[in-house]
Amino acid sequence: MDKNLNIDNKEAKQKCLNEVISRIQDIDDPSQVGLIAAQDIVDIVVENLGPEIYNKAIFDTNKLFQNKLEDLKYEIEKLKQ
Q1: CA–CA distance, 34 with 51 (Å, rounded to integer)
Q2: Scanning 15, 17, 61, 80, which has the fewest C-beta atoms within 10 Å of its C-beta?
Q3: What mean pLDDT do residues 38-60 have?
């Protein structure tokens, strides 16, 4: 699995990074990030990048199905006599 999310929307990505940095800076001791702060950070990421990730997944899925459909069309054509 590719761990590097290629987010095309640079503004959304930068906004997310800025909000995460701001949230971490608000924590007195970042080495002691607790469950609530961690959930806040996850919420920030999901809110800012969730739609981008979802749309990319839809695009990739559509591309996969299109490729499979082309493969099936080719296989069907091979069956012609």
Answers
A1: 26
A2: 80
A3: 88
